[in-house]
Design a protein that fits this description.
Blueprint (H helix, E strand, L loop, with lengths): L1 E5 L2 E15 L2 E14 L5 E12 L4 E7 L7 E2 L4 E10 L3 E12 L5 E12 L6
Antiparallel strand pairs: 1-2, 2-3, 3-7, 4-5, 4-6, 4-8, 8-9
Pfam family, one: DUF525
Protein name: Co2+/Mg2+ efflux protein ApaG
Organism: Gaetbulibacter aestuarii
Length: 128
């Protein structure tokens, strides 16, 4: 598990290897990741958007941006957390992801970014 705190928001990430399959004659490696967003600040905040950079071992980079996470824009009061699971496909058995969440502080009405720390994606049979 990797963890990082930015502006009182703690991000924790755990990953799993889900398996591999062929798509359009190319092998794909499926990974799952579970993110917990914990509000350790004294203010209520809302997650509005996400930005991911997904890299595989073949130097391919995919940028993923969008509103919320899995269709939600969670509001977190002090001490609350939100956990969700998502996934990605890579063209190699290992890679990494990192990014940030765009959030707003309801007390100050200021927008801020929370760093999602870099985490590795690795199939158990891959040597890295």
């Amino acid at each position: 598990m990797v963890q990082q705190i930015t502006s009182g928001i703690k991000i924790s990430v755990e990953t799993t290897f889900e398996g591999s399959f062929y798509k359009n004659y190319k092998i794909q490696y499926a990974f799952g990741y579970t993110v917990t967003i914990e509000n350790q600040s004294k203010d209520s905040v809302q997650l509005n958007a996400r930005h991911w950079e997904i890299m595989d071992a073949l130097n391919n980079v995919e940028i993923v941006t969008g509103e919320g996470v899995i269709g939600k824009k969670p509001v977190l009061k002090p001490g609350e957390s939100h956990t969700y699971t998502s996934g990605c496909l890579l063209g190699s058995p290992f890679g990494a992801m990192h990014g940030h969440y765009d959030m707003i502080n309801f007390t100050t009405t200021k927008k801020f970014q929370v760093t999602i720390p870099t985490f590795k994606l690795s199939a158990p049979f891959a040597i890295n």
